[in-house]
Design a protein that fits this description.
Blueprint lengths: L1 H14 L4 H55 L59 E3 L2 E7 L7 E10 L5 E9 L5 E7 L6 E8 L2 E8 L9 E9 L11 E8 L2 E7 L1 E2 L3
Parallel strand pairs: 2-11
Antiparallel strand pairs: 1-2, 2-3, 3-8, 4-7, 4-9, 5-8, 6-7, 9-10
Keywords: Membrane, Transmembrane, Transmembrane helix
Length: 264
């Protein structure tokens, strides 16, 4: 059996005719594949070098950037302008004050304005502040010019408070004749039938008068007595005007008088 196999192999080897062209083609293909396989490792080995070179360049640029940023931050910017704050200077002298509705006190160094009282029965008490509230027993009163007064017309009012009923009451308002002063009326919050009301010109003034009729009583309450009049065109001063109130209560006769504050 073995001899037979050997014989057949020998006969096949002797009958074989080699193909030279096919052998050369296989050799060329093998050589080309070997060249490709040799170049690939070279490229792989050169890649880390390129990476290291790029990293080194980036590190140099980063260090340079940090140095420039440090120079920019450590160099202070000069101010464009210089601002100087000045503390306000305090002025000497007392602050303006008001007393009982009177006008503010004049500034330091300015002369104070005074008003001389008229020697008449209707002139205000010189000791009482002009237009301020005055009182006597159960009576308390104050005079003022209505803020709705105009350059042609004005209204003055006397507010009267009493804590006791009054069995007798006389209210007088004296309006100085400052030019074309003419009465246009008067009114009161108490019933008109309880009073005798008059308005008369004379002695350089217009005198308004309310007199409680006999047998009538004014209750303890808040009352208003108002006068109205025309005057010369312009802002009229009420410095020369005055009022006087005389009343009888259970404890006797009481009197209050004063001037008028200007319209606010």
């Amino acid at each position: 059996m073995n001899e037979e196999i050997v014989r057949r192999l020998r006969e096949a080897a002797e009958a074989h005719q080699p193909d030279r062209d096919r052998m050369l083609a296989r050799v060329h293909r093998g050589m080309a594949g070997s060249a490709v396989r040799q170049r690939r490792p070279g490229i792989a080995r050169s890649w880390p070098k390129a990476v290291l070179a790029g990293s080194a360049a980036a590190g140099i640029l980063a260090v340079a950037g940090v140095a420039v940023a440090g120079l920019v931050q450590t160099t202070p910017a000069g101010p464009d302008t210089v601002t100087t704050l000045t503390a306000p200077t305090e002025t000497s002298g007392p602050a303006p004050t008001t007393t009982g509705g009177s006008a503010p006190a004049p500034a330091s160094g300015a002369p104070a304005r005074t008003t001389a009282a008229r020697p008449s029965s209707g002139s205000p008490d010189p000791a009482a502040p002009r237009g301020g509230r005055v009182s006597d027993g159960p009576l308390s009163a104050r005079g003022s010019i209505d803020p709705h007064s105009t350059v042609y017309w004005a209204q003055g009012g006397v507010t009267l408070d009493t804590t006791q009923p009054l069995t007798a009451l006389t209210v007088e308002v004296h309006v100085k004749q400052t030019g074309d002063v003419r009465s246009t009326g008067q009114w009161q919050t108490a019933p008109g039938d309880d009073f005798t009301v008059t308005a008369q010109d004379g002695d350089g003034e217009v005198v308004y008068r309310w007199e409680l009729k006999p047998g009538r009583t004014v209750p303890a309450a808040h009352h208003v007595f108002a006068v109205q009049y025309n005057h010369a065109t312009g802002v009229r001063s009420a410095d020369g005007d005055s009022y006087r109130v005389q009343a009888t209560a259970a404890d006797g006769v009481h009197t209050v008088q004063g001037g008028f504050t200007p319209a606010s």
